[in-house]
């Protein structure tokens, strides 16, 4: 056999290996092929190819493994059980940039499924190598490493702490300053994933100087980058007053308000979430948002979108209103109540209705003036029907009931309360009757109106236990009127009169 024929055998073998990994990588892009590949034992066949002498075969084998592991946790588990991770980590440090990207992709694909799988990646020593990749000259390698680190950190605070301990944070902060948009997006996302778990982890991100760089990117034209930047800032701000103040001090107002008008729904939602997380901490931070025009901007935002995008804005109004009478009045003056009333009526999802109910309750619970502003928007009958509807979720029923009680206990706008007299169950009715018993003794005009509108008649029809709070309220109302008027409107009075007519013998 000539030398050429001998070499030809090797060339054929190499071509076959190349064709095999390329085809498997291609097949792995389609979900319908995954099970067949798995049953054919693809993992065991790809594993030795990770250490192939031909770099291209190594890279394609890693890419195929990543695609398979990305598909479901069974396949990701198979990567761990097949002892493939140590090989990847070893090669990650040694090989060229194409292989590093593919290897980091496998680690990300395995780590994303569960804390256990992410822990397996930590246990095989991958973090140190991934952190070294964050210093690679190739932006694609940095991006792949950032992505893998973010996917590991997002599961829980222990894994997030492992990423911090490996020294990733200062390098991720450098990555958000790179010119490549894709790298900045992923690095900002990874910082968000680390920050979300605890104040201590958020503090490590702050200490690395992340806030100033993130704040500068709020006005970047790239929507996907803005989403991640706003998310990272809100994950930092949510934990404590100090962290929220640090975010505010980076001069995010009023620029962040422009994001509420963004064409990208997620940018809107994340901007509203950031503002909500700042507003909920203290009256001072809420006041700062009001002064910057934040409440009016959130109300416009709620009006311009639907569904879950509205949710953080709805809640933000509730948090602002909860702090004080003045802040609740700021929400009313900015016409927040009609907008929340629309959400309460038209949103199909119970959890969004529940948030709107909660916020309206926070606005209306302060003074009669606040309660009136909510009542005249026609909110009370809607809250009552949501509370009584059997198809409402338990959370919605609880929030609607609480909001109703909050508003009713302050509401002296009787014409808004009167329709509820006819529909409310006893536990709500006592609050409504209670309000009438407070107002009627001091308001002659209201007393007259209460008779002509049928309110007094309705009160006489209410069945209450002797000595109960409800009975006390009814007695207080009845004491506002002459006895014969009360008797006249009591049930059975007309029959008693007719009986007297029948039994009356005229004096002839």
Automatic annotation (TrEMBL):
Subcellular location field: Cell projection, Cilium, Flagellum; Cytoplasm, Cytoskeleton, Cilium axoneme
DNA damage keyword on record: no
InterPro entries registered for this protein in UniProt: ARM-like, ARM-type_fold, Armadillo
UniProt key word Repeat: yes
Listed GO MF terms: microtubule binding
Domain of life: Eukaryota
GO BP annotations listed: epithelial cilium movement involved in extracellular fluid movement; filopodium assembly; neuron projection extension; sperm axoneme assembly
One GO cellular component term noted in the UniProt record for this chain: extracellular region
Keywords (A to Z) from UniProt: Cell projection, Cilium, Cilium biogenesis/degradation, Cytoplasm, Cytoskeleton, Flagellum, Microtubule, Repeat
Role played: Important for structural integrity of the central apparatus in the sperm tail and for flagellar motility.
Subunit structure: Interacts with SPAG16 and SPAG17.
Name of the molecule in the record: Sperm-associated antigen 6
Species of origin: Pseudonaja textilis (Eastern brown snake)
Gene: SPAG6
């Amino acid at each position: 056999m000539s030398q050429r024929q001998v070499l030809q055998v090797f060339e054929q073998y190499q071509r076959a290996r190349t064709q095999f990994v390329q085809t498997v990588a291609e097949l792995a892009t389609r979900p319908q092929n995954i099970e067949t590949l798995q049953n054919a034992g693809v993992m065991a066949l790809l594993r030795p190819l990770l250490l192939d002498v031909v770099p291209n075969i190594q890279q394609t084998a890693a890419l195929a493994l990543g695609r398979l592991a990305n598909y479901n946790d069974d396949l990701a588990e198979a990567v761990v059980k097949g002892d493939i991770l140590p090989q990847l980590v070893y090669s990650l440090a040694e090989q060229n940039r194409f292989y590093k990207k593919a290897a980091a992709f496998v680690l990300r694909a395995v780590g994303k499924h569960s804390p256990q799988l992410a822990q397996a990646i930590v246990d095989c020593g991958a973090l140190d190598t991934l952190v070294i990749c964050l210093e690679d000259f190739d932006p694609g390698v940095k991006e792949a490493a950032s992505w893998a680190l973010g996917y590991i950190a997002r599961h829980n605070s222990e894994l997030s702490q492992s990423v911090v301990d490996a020294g990733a944070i200062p390098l991720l902060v450098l990555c958000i300053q790179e010119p490549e948009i894709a790298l900045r997006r992923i690095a900002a996302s990874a910082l968000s994933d680390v920050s979300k778990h605890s104040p201590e982890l958020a503090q490590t991100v702050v200490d690395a100087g992340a806030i100033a760089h993130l704040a500068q990117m709020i006005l970047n034209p790239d929507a996907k980058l803005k989403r991640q930047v706003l998310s990272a800032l809100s994950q930092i701000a949510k934990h404590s007053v100090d962290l929220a103040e640090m975010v505010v001090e980076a001069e995010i107002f009023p620029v962040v308000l422009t994001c509420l008008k963004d064409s990208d729904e997620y940018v809107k939602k994340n901007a509203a979430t950031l503002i909500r997380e700042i507003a909920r901490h203290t009256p001072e931070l809420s006041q700062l948002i009001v002064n910057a025009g934040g409440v009016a901007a959130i109300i416009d935002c709620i009006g311009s979108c639907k569904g879950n995008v509205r949710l953080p804005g709805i809640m933000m109004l509730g948090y602002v209103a909860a702090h004080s009478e003045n802040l609740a009045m700021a929400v009313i003056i900015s016409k927040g109540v009609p907008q929340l009333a629309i959400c309460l009526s038209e949103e199909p999802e119970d959890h969004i209705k529940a948030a709107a109910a909660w916020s309206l309750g926070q606005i209306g619970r302060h003074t009669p003036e606040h309660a009136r502003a909510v009542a005249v928007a026609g909110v009370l009958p809607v809250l009552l029907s949501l509370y009584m509807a059997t198809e409402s979720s338990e959370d919605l029923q609880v929030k609607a009931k609480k909001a109703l009680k909050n508003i009713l206990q302050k509401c002296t706008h009787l014409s808004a309360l009167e329709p509820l007299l006819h529909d409310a169950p006893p536990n709500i009715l006592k609050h409504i009757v209670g309000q009438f018993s407070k107002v009627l003794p001091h308001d002659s005009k209201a007393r007259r109106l209460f008779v002509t509108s049928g309110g007094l008649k309705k009160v006489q029809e209410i069945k209450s236990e002797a000595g109960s709070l409800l009975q006390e309220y009814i007695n207080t109302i009845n004491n506002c009127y002459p006895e014969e008027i009360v008797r006249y409107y009591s049930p059975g009075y007309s029959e008693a009169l007719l009986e007297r007519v029948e039994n009356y013998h005229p004096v002839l």
